[in-house]
Design a protein that fits this description.
By secondary structure, the protein is α+β, with helices and mostly antiparallel strands. The chain has six helices and four strands. It has helices spanning 11-18, 26-37, 69-72, 76-79, 87-110, 125-128; strands at residues 43-44, 55-57, 62-67, 114-119. It has a four-stranded mixed β-sheet, sandwiched between helices. The protein is globular.
């Protein structure tokens, strides 16, 4: 199957990639569920702000992004050389994502928001286990 990006994919790979979620990922759901149980109220996937943050505390001006490692370039300098298939496409895409994330964070900070970013690899569980967690 020829894609608009100029490389071929198998039906299996195409099906796998189509199932990757952009919102309501398992780490996001877990994080939100924990916050809700602790009594924190928030907005999710708030489209009124740049980058559509995963979790937003509007009154406190705090936004939370839970970023996937591959898509947002976790340990990019060590992972980049290991990309073998469609290198030009993936390296370009991920580097654009990294730049966009930086730009969005700077924009939000300039607007007075506190920006928190977590890697989904570091399951939000470790950040929420403390009973002494305070409202952001």
């Amino acid at each position: 199957m020829e894609s608009k990006y100029g490389f071929t994919t198998t039906e299996t790979r195409s099906r796998i990639m189509s199932r990757i979620r952009g919102i309501d990922t398992t780490p996001e759901k877990y994080f939100r569920k924990k916050l809700w149980r602790l009594g924190y109220r928030y907005r999710k996937n708030y489209s009124k702000l740049p980058g559509k943050p995963d979790i937003v505390f509007v009154k406190k001006k705090v936004v939370i992004f839970i970023d996937g490692e591959f898509w947002h370039g976790f340990e990019w300098d060590t992972k980049k050389p290991r990309i073998l298939s469609n290198r030009d496409y993936w390296i370009n895409k991920i580097e654009r994502n990294i730049e966009r994330d930086k730009r969005i964070s700077i924009t939000l900070e300039q607007q007075g928001w506190q920006v928190l970013r977590f890697w989904s690899l570091y399951h939000p569980k470790m950040f929420l286990q403390s009973s002494s967690m305070r409202y952001p």
